[in-house]
Design brief:
Chain B: It is a multi-pass membrane protein. The complex is a heterodimer of chains A (216) and B (601). Chain A is an alpha+beta fold and 216 residues long. Chain A is 47% helix and 8% strand. Chain A has 6 helices and 4 strands. In chain B, strand 1 and strand 2 form a beta hairpin. The mean pLDDT of chain B is 87. The chains are: A alpha+beta (216), B mainly alpha (601). Chains A and B meet through helix 2 and helix 6 of A and helix 6 and helix 9 of B.
């Protein structure tokens, strides 16, 4: 009995080694950059983390295939390096048939955020070689914000211009009303003042010194 | 109001601030630091200051004196000096008109960037995503996000001056706003301008000061400052350094446009413009030096950041290829590890050898990328800003400062057109506001041409050719006219009349001898340069490569350049000819006996 189990185990291990060949077939390479992402709070990479990875990937496969009961034993990693990068293959539950790359890729893409979250990493620090992250759709507001600021400034400037143009007209009107009142009130003086508008006087240029021309 | 009804500045301080606001413009921020870097850092200050004494100060003084004495805009003032020289004023007006057309487009860009700074992520910090959502847009990937934002989203630039497209509506709106604000500032003439300059002249210094503090505390700023201030005295032997110093002083002070004459014409007769001229020139040069300290601190920060990013990329490349632990290579040890890995794993290293060579990290090379003009202001600076903590605040401050500098200069430019034209009796029948409004609308409509897809290339034509050569010509004729046609003795007397004392021997020698000789030298140099340079070229943006390529101007472009130059320069001889013909006609009609001798008053 024991020998049978040992034989099965070694068989499965050797099969796993055969299944998971870096760069060949349906294998994917994954790379963790934990220290870059977390700095001082980085956790060390060990067997437990590897177990979490296999569990997360099994979850992703289950989620994508809608119920096929993938287990931790269906994820086969190999060639682990100090970088914290390794290759892995996925086999169908209870068999040794490899799941093709396309399916694995789509499963990972679907659950990428969940896998990242499990490790406190991001798309950049947990890389699957060959699987490009789907970037978040750009948020486009209804009115671009710059237009709002533009509207405010333009409105203020227009108000300023109108104010500057209208103010002297208003002033002149008020003055006219005041002058009309004054004229009514000093009719008895009998002095006929000049009409409105000529109050400032005209500069008579006859007597100015205009000899600025160079004699040529 | 003076006896001849001409409006006045409320106080001499307003006049000084107006001159400062006009002279201190974008050139101080984006041209002087570039020249400093090009010509040996701190050593460039020597030719710069010498040229200030030989050329800048005397010419500035002279223009102020003319304006204050004649109390007319440039056309009227030069006609008063000699009827044959009215063309000088006209040439100034034409050149100012060209300047107004394209200068406000820069303000429109500043507005665009300013408005786009009110976002949580600055739009030039990240690339927009392409339609498949797999990565950034192609063009943005080959270029940098800041370049993409400037060339694609701000300008929507075409690939050459021949290709044209529609108007960029955002740009057009910003240009309308820029002209609306210009109108708001000049609508009441010097009354409104005088109040505005209190703000436009002083606020930029506050922002520069804040930026100075921020700049020198940035990581890596010291590299830039060291690079700038290590004088390379060998550069002084290069004649180009001296020529560039002379040109920079000349254009920086805004001589020849007629703005200084216009501003000074609103002065009281006895205003002490001698001290004011010295003060304004010194402030202008001081601001240039101040701005280059800030610019170089920012350069140093950006260069250090790029260098460190480059090292980081190298580090990642090595880590990923050789599968080493993450903390095996630190930023400092990247270079030694490259060596080590090259020797221990040569075959594996050969695979990435190309990438390593391409991505070679060199701090000197980063610092060496000297940029000037709009490239510095809108690309390099915005790249530095996006990396600062709290980038929105710094972005708003920076573009607001650019706006103030640009608007302050626009005040002078527009006044240079309006003042001489208003001196003509026909125009003075129209109200002030209407006339200013018409000028603004006219310039706005023509300026919309710069907001088209090839607009930036036309902008470059105007920037390089509209005001450079003609100004040299104008100021040369100005100084010769004042020194030799009007006569130094008469000029002296006029100044004594205004100030109460004659100008001392320094000024007289500069006006009569040094400045004309310098200007003639510059003039000849420009002509030789133009002839030797062959076909004029420009930088066309190639969107596939994500960089600018040097392209020759097509035939119509070259014709346009010639037209620009000829249209302003030819005003002088044509007006002289016109005055000559009129005088001959007058003399001929005087000789004819008049039937009725009227006593005309």
């Amino acid at each position: 009995m024991l020998e049978k189990i040992l034989l099965l185990l070694s068989l499965s291990l050797s099969v796993a080694e055969e299944l998971c060949k870096p760069g060949v077939g349906e294998a994917y390479k994954v790379r963790f950059s934990i220290k870059t992402a977390l700095g001082d709070q980085a956790y060390p990479w060990n067997k437990n983390e590897m177990f979490l990875f296999r569990a997360a990937l099994a979850f992703a496969m289950r989620d994508f295939t809608n119920g096929e009961e993938f287990g931790v034993s269906d994820i086969h990693p190999c060639n682990e390096t100090q970088r914290v990068s390794f290759w892995f293959v996925v086999t169908r539950p209870n068999t040794m048939d490899l799941v093709d790359k396309g399916t694995v890729e789509m499963a990972i893409k679907k659950s990428r955020n969940r896998i990242n979250g499990a490790f406190l990493l991001t798309d950049k620090t947990l890389e699957f070689d060959g699987i490009y992250p789907t970037l978040a759709a750009p948020v486009s507001p209804d009115t671009p914000p710059w237009l709002i600021v533009f509207g405010v400034v333009m409105g203020a400037v227009s108000v300023g211009i109108i104010a500057l143009l209208v103010y002297p007209l208003v002033q002149r009107k008020l003055k006219k009303n005041m002058d009309a009142d004054d004229e009514d009130s000093d009719e008895e003086t009998g002095v006929k003042t000049a009409e409105n508008g000529a109050n400032d006087g005209i500069y008579n240029s006859t007597f100015s010194d205009d000899e600025r021309f160079t004699q040529m | 109001m003076e006896k001849d009804g001409r409006p006045n500045w409320d106080s001499p301080m307003q006049f000084v601030l107006a001159c400062v606001s006009y002279a201190v413009g974008l050139g101080n921020v984006w041209r002087f630091p570039y020249l400093c870097q090009l010509h040996g850092g701190g050593g460039f200050l020597i030719p710069y200051l010498i040229m200030l004494l030989l050329e800048g100060l005397p010419l500035f003084y002279m223009e102020l004196a003319i304006g204050q004495k004649m109390r007319l805009g440039s056309i009227g003032a030069w006609t008063s000096i000699s009827p044959y020289l009215g063309g000088l004023g006209l040439a100034s007006v034409v050149t100012s008109m060209y300047l107004c057309l394209y200068y406000n487009v820069i303000n429109a860009w500043s507005f665009w960037y300013l408005f786009h700074s009110f976002q949580s992520v600055l739009p030039w910090a990240v690339c927009p995503i392409n339609s498949n959502r797999t990565g950034p847009t192609e063009e943005c990937e080959v270029a940098t996000p800041t370049q993409y934002f400037f060339y694609r989203e701000t300008l929507n630039i075409s690939s050459s001056i021949e290709e044209n497209g529609g108007i960029h509506t955002g740009q057009a709106l910003c240009l309308v706003l820029a002209w609306a604000i210009t109108y708001l500032f000049i609508v009441r003439g010097v009354k409104s301008t005088g109040k505005v300059v209190y703000f436009t002249a002083t606020f930029p210094y506050l922002v520069l000061f804040i930026y100075l503090i921020r700049g020198v505390t940035l990581h890596g700023a010291i590299n830039g400052l060291k690079y700038m201030f290590t004088p390379k005295m060998a550069e002084l032997a290069n004649p180009r350094a001296w020529i560039n110093a002379a040109t920079q002083i000349f254009f920086s002070l805004g001589l020849g446009f007629g703005s200084l004459i216009a501003f000074a014409s609103y002065n009281q007769h006895n205003n002490n413009f001698q001290n004011q001229a010295i003060v304004v020139s010194l402030i202008n040069s001081g601001t240039s030096i101040f701005a280059s300290i800030v610019t170089f601190a920012i350069y140093g920060f950006k260069a250090t950041l790029n260098y460190e990013n480059c090292l980081d990329r190298m580090r990642l490349l090595l880590l990923n290829t050789f599968d080493l632990a993450e903390d095996a290579i630190s930023m400092d040890s990247v270079l030694e590890w490259t060596e080590k890995l090259n020797t221990t794993y040569p075959e594996q290293f050969a695979q990435i050898a190309d990438k390593v060579r391409e991505g070679e990290c060199n701090l000197e090379k980063e610092l060496d990328t000297a940029v000037e003009g709009t490239g510095l202001a809108f690309i390099v600076y915005s790249e530095a800003i996006k990396n600062m903590p709290l980038p929105q605040l710094w972005s708003v401050l920076y573009f607001f400062m650019l706006l103030l500098l640009g608007m302050g200069s626009m005040l002078g430019n527009v006044t240079a057109i309006i003042t001489p034209l208003r001196d003509f009796k026909i125009m003075s029948r129209m109200s002030n506001e209407l006339f200013s409004g018409l000028v603004c609308v006219f310039c706005l409509l023509l300026g919309l041409g710069f907001t088209t897809t090839s607009g930036n290339y036309w902008f470059t034509i105007f920037n390089d050719y509209a005001a450079t050569f003609s100004l040299l010509f104008i100021v040369l004729i100005e100084v010769i006219a004042v020194s030799y046609i009007y006569g130094i003795k008469r000029f002296e007397k006029d100044i004594e009349d205004m100030l109460g004392h004659r100008p001392n021997w320094y000024w007289k020698i500069m006006w009569a001898v040094t400045s004309p000789l310098l200007l003639i030298g510059l003039f000849i140099f420009y002509i030789i340069n133009y002839i030797q340079g062959g076909t004029p070229t420009y930088q066309a943006w190639n969107k596939e490569l994500g960089e600018s390529a040097v392209t020759e101007y097509p035939a119509f472009g070259q014709v346009f350049i010639v037209l620009l130059l000829v249209s302003s320069v030819s005003c002088v001889p044509l007006t002289a000819l016109y005055a000559f013909c009129r005088k001959r006609k007058d003399r001929a009609s005087e000789k004819r006996p008049s039937a009725v001798s009227t006593v005309s008053v």
